[in-house]
Amino acid sequence: MTTTTTFNSGRKFFHWVIAAFLLLQIPFGWYMVDLPLADKAGPYNLHKSLGMVLFSLGVARLIWALFSSRPKLAASWPEKVMVKTLQAVLYILICLMPISGWIMSSAAGFPPKLFGLLQLPSIWAVNPDDVEGFQQMHEMQSWILLAALTLHLLGAIRHHFLLKDDTLRRILPGKN
Questions:
Q1: For the chain, is the Cβ count within 10 Å smaller at the N or the C terminus?
Q2: Which fold has domain 3-171?
Q3: 22, 149 Cβ separation under 8 angstroms
């Protein structure tokens, strides 16, 4: 694995597209939970479809990250450990949340149907008693993900405004 001074276009693409999906999915998920039952089907189907796209992007990003060059971290070893840990949490949650949602939907008897076109198989036996536990898990994951994203953002702000280095500029779209 080689290192560079900037993030390649694939890393930038995955970073910003996944960020956009997360900024949509988390508040949308919280919003749709409180909708009247008669109004839930459309938003839930869209949320599930976007979640499956997000899962695919997360897996693709992980594969890309494993096989593409990346900039060397200019940090002390404790900071490197924190960065690597936070990255791992983000990767895990970006992939795990859609799976927990899929399991929850399967347990409720409504597995995802991608944009109304492709029915995904159930990955959990229909069992209404399991749904609440998976709902709680899915919601807890959203809060952990939000906390991890906040730490990620605070780290970027720290690098840009306090340390005045080029960490943030290297991930921004366009040339660096």
A1: N
A2: Fumarate Reductase Cytochrome B subunit (1.20.950)
A3: yes
Q: What's the DSSP call for residue 112?
A: -
Spatial separation of the C-alpha atoms in residues 61 and 55, rounded to whole Å: 10
pLDDT at 1 over 60: no
**C-alpha distances in angstroms, 173 versus 31, 33, 93?**
30, 34, 24
Q: How far apart are CA 136 and CA 93, in angstroms?
A: 15
Let me know how many helices (H) and strands (E) the chain has, helices first: 5, 4
Q: Strand 113-114 to strand 118-119: parallel, antiparallel, or no bridges (unpaired)? A: antiparallel
The whole model's pTM is what? 0.90
Contact call for residues 49 and 25 (beta carbons, < 8 A): no
Q: Spell out the domain ranges in the chain.
A: 3-171
